């Protein structure tokens, strides 16, 4: 209630860029008054690892942007090196059972909200985007990326089966053969490779340029009837959404069974440790 009152006040404010930031600030929303486009920024330090709270915040922000009838949604990160490091591995290693369940449900919700989003969506990928980071980028309709980054679903490299929504995203973006190979090999692509295979649509040298490109993409829909555009998008995605709903409960149980497997726990522990060791080595 307080929140919507606060929002309506902000909407009337005559600023060029109004902020609809959530209280926790794990994501922020800025709506450009000239273009009507909302920029949704991931803001969980240090690397936007997707934990329960960030996913919850993302869901709320997406809903807020849709409810406020923005003209489009641009997803980006406040970190200038990492778009998102994917799921927070600490939520999966020696997990709290209720939180692990919630984590996956919230991830499914975010995917669903973006995959079926009424608005045109674009990702300004201003840093590394492995696994869950790649999921957030490829669920959008357009991607632009900064040089010297990496993107991909590295799950199989970690002994993890990529869930079906990773497959849906890749099949929307890449030729089937390339999608299957890169998912089953857990390939991570450099920015240049990603451009070459069509995983990203453009490469630019700064975040500002990335946001401009995303705005231009969303502007290409300016003269298209919004309802017709939205229904056409839904039509393309309906079969995936139907399959997702059918398999959603099973997908959740598979995830829980998977992360609770002793071998998976051992692997996660080693992987987490190696990530920490990397930092220790850098400090030497
Ligand atoms: C058929 C049905 C199947 C159903 C489904 C079944 C199973 C699916 C199960 C799971 C799916 C998971 C999907 C995922 O998203 S897993 C996450 C994968 N992510 C990664 O592998 C990224 C690893 N991180 C990196 O490569 C680098 O950190 C990165 C390039 C992102 C950033 O590098 P940078 O040098 O800037 O920062 P670092 O020093 O490496 O990291 C800082 C700090 O953060 C810690 N950390 C890194 N990544 C994670 C993470 N994903 N989660 C938690 N913590 C992370 C890192 O250890 C450092 O910590 P500290 O040393 O400061 O304590």
TrEMBL record:
Tell me where in or outside the cell this protein is found. Mitochondrion matrix
Annotated GO CC locations: mitochondrial matrix
GO annotation terms (biological process):
fatty acid beta-oxidation
Q: Which reaction does it catalyse?
A: (3Z)-octenoyl-CoA = (2E)-octenoyl-CoA; (3Z)-dodecenoyl-CoA = (2E)-dodecenoyl-CoA; (2E)-tetradecenoyl-CoA = (3Z)-tetradecenoyl-CoA; (3Z)-decenoyl-CoA = (2E)-decenoyl-CoA
Signal sequence region: none
For this UniProt entry, the molecular function terms from Gene Ontology, in alphabetical order, are: delta(3)-delta(2)-enoyl-CoA isomerase activity
Record bears the keyword Chloroplast: no
Q: In which pathway does it act?
A: Lipid metabolism; fatty acid beta-oxidation
Q: Which InterPro entries does the protein's record reference?
A: ClpP/crotonase-like_dom_sf, Enoyl-CoA_hydra/iso
Keyword line: Acetylation, Fatty acid metabolism, Isomerase, Lipid metabolism, Mitochondrion, Transit peptide
How it assembles, according to the record, is:
Homotrimer.
Q: What does this protein do?
A: Key enzyme of fatty acid beta-oxidation. Able to isomerize both 3-cis (3Z) and 3-trans (3E) double bonds into the 2-trans (2E) form in a range of enoyl-CoA species, with a preference for (3Z)-enoyl-CoAs over (3E)-enoyl-CoAs. The catalytic efficiency of this enzyme is not affected by the fatty acyl chain length.
Name of the featured protein? Enoyl-CoA delta isomerase 1, mitochondrial
Q: Which species is this UniProt entry from? A: Drosophila hydei (Fruit fly)
């Amino acid at each position: 209630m307080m929140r919507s009152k606060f929002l309506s006040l902000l909407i009337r404010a005559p600023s060029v860029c109004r902020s609809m930031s959530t209280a926790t600030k794990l994501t922020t929303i800025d709506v450009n008054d000239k273009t009507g486009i909302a920029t949704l920024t991931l803001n969980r330090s240090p690397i936007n690892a997707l934990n329960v709270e960030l996913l919850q915040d993302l869901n709320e922000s997406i809903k807020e942007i849709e409810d406020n009838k923005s003209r489009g949604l641009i997803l980006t990160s406040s970190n200038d090196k990492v778009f998102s490091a994917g799921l927070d591995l600490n939520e999966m290693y020696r997990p709290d059972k209720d939180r692990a369940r919630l984590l996956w449900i919230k991830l499914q919700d975010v995917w669903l909200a973006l995959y079926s989003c009424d608005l045109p969506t674009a990702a300004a990928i201003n840093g590394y985007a492995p696994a869950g980071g790649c999921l957030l980028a490829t669920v959008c309709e357009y991607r632009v990326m900064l040089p010297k980054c990496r993107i991909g679903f590295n799950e199989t490299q970690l002994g993890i089966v990529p869930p079906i929504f990773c497959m849906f995203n890749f099949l929307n973006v890449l030729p089937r053969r390339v999608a299957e190979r890169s998912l089953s090999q857990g390939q991570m692509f450099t920015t240049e490779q990603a451009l070459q295979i069509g995983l990203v649509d453009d490469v630019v040298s700064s975040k500002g340029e990335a946001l401009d490109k995303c705005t231009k993409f969303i502007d290409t829909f300016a003269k298209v009837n919004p309802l017709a555009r939205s229904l056409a998008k839904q039509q393309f995605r309906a079969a995936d959404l139907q399959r997702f709903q059918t398999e959603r409960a099973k997908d959740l149980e598979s995830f829980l069974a998977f992360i609770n497997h002793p071998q998976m726990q051992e692997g996660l522990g080693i992987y987490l440790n190696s990530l920490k060791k990397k930092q220790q080595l850098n400090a030497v």
